[in-house]
Amino acid sequence: MSPIVTVQEAVTAFADWIEPTDAELDAIEQELPVILAEVDLLDAQIVTLDRTPTELDARRIRRAQRRVLTERRDLANRTAGVTLPGDAA
């Protein structure tokens, strides 16, 4: 049997004491509407994986796609010209 050896960098990269900075948390909060819209789109697409999409499914997917585009546009407009400290976002 060969022993299992861990790499120190891989172990410390996910240590409990490493947390996101305030700038990273702010960037995530700014992007949250886009993330939620993309989750809704993914949910709508997953529903149709094992069956033929109905007209209602197609409408739900189109609505979710429009919401993703709207949220991305709004995020781009909110963050245009905004610089965050610490290279976040």
How many β-strand runs?
A: 0
Order of helices and strands: HHH
In percent, how much strand structure appears in the residues?
Answer: under 5%
General form:
flat
Major sheet description:
none
- Radius of gyration, rounded? 20 Å
Question: Which spans of ≥5 residues are poorly predicted at pLDDT below 50?
Answer: none
Share of helix among residues? 55-70%
Q: By helix and strand content, what is the structural category? A: mainly alpha
Count of discrete alpha- or pi-helical segments spanning 4 or more residues: 3
Distance N terminus to C terminus? 45 Å
Give the rounded overall mean pLDDT.
85
Q: Can you give a write-up of this model?
A:
By secondary structure, the protein is an all-alpha fold. It has a domain at 20-79. Helices cover 63% and strands 0% of the residues. It is built from 3 helices and no strands. 3% of the residues are buried. InterPro entries: DUF6284. Pfam families: DUF6284.
